[in-house]
Amino acid sequence: MIPALRPLWTAPRAPGAPARVWRDWVLVGLLVPTAVLEAVLRPDVLWRPLALAVTLLIVVSLLWRRTHPLAAVAGVFGTLAVVDVVVLVSGAGELALYTSVCVLLLPYALCRWGSGREVMLGLPLVVVSAALGIAGTYTGVPDAILELLFVLSPGAIGAGVRAGAGSRLREREQVRVREREQLARELHDTVAHHVSAIAVRAQAGRVVAAVDPVAAVDALRVIEAEASRALTEMRLMVGALRDDGAADLTPQRGVADIERLARAVSGPPRVEVELSGDLDDLRPAVGAALYRLAQESVTNAVRHARHASQVTVRVAADDERVRLTVADDGELQGRGATGYGIVGMTERATLLGGTLDAGPGPDRGWTVAAVLPRAGAAA
CB-based contacts of 94: which residues, under 8 Å, 6+ apart? Predict the structure, then answer.
């Protein structure tokens, strides 16, 4: 195998290849009567029944262009090759309806959604069929080259769209990985604090246990050993997740820091914080997540909310969950919920067993709403 072709040959099907969608049915529903009317009304159509049958085959195959691109390409371009040979031998001239131009969607679909092997197998069929069709109406080398490039250009476009989609998917995955690493650091800091306290208490217990039964001393020794081992393993695990291997010694942020975050924004817009409910006994991981979500949302509002005068941050807690809402009163022009910041925030909320929604506010501006369980995902 040629080394340069190996990545394409072994490439899997493009990620996110969709199933048959309603737009395909609408397209086919419009093209079928168009082909029939053209076959009936055009006086210059040669071999009218055959031309209509081939065109309908092309149109119907569009229903499978996403899910089975190679099968659609093989069926259509194989049939076209046979018809082109018959036309070439008989000298009948061009045999096609204008509606059959929709066949150009198949090379696009092959390179957009097909696997590497399907692309390698399907493109030669397209080239052979196109060459036979060009031979039947040959007018010179320049025209033949232009016609062949015209047939293959949708495939190039499909390959470009596929590459762009794959790049965006990789970037989104990198955002998720970074968010998981950040959450792992915060979980590590929380667990390390409690496990360190257990180890200290166990050591103190060994000192005062001289007057107690031997079993108490043994139990304290086990507690100390298990706590120290858990702390070591946790540090090793998080150290493997960190790119630089360095420990982050910055104190973990929480709900109380959201007010300081608001004061740090000089504005405009003005940032106001409203806290309600019992926010004192939240798990550290939940408190840190609320702070990070508020920080990202406020940063996005300050950067992207055009003509915004105020950003409101509300944190409300009840017995089971905490709800965070960040809303601004800016304009919506040029804003959307597809940025990688939203992806990271959604990933963080999901890992803790919560949800996050972002979109236009009821009146104006942008609203981010997150709901997290008080005890986190482990509860």
Answer: 46, 87, 136, 137
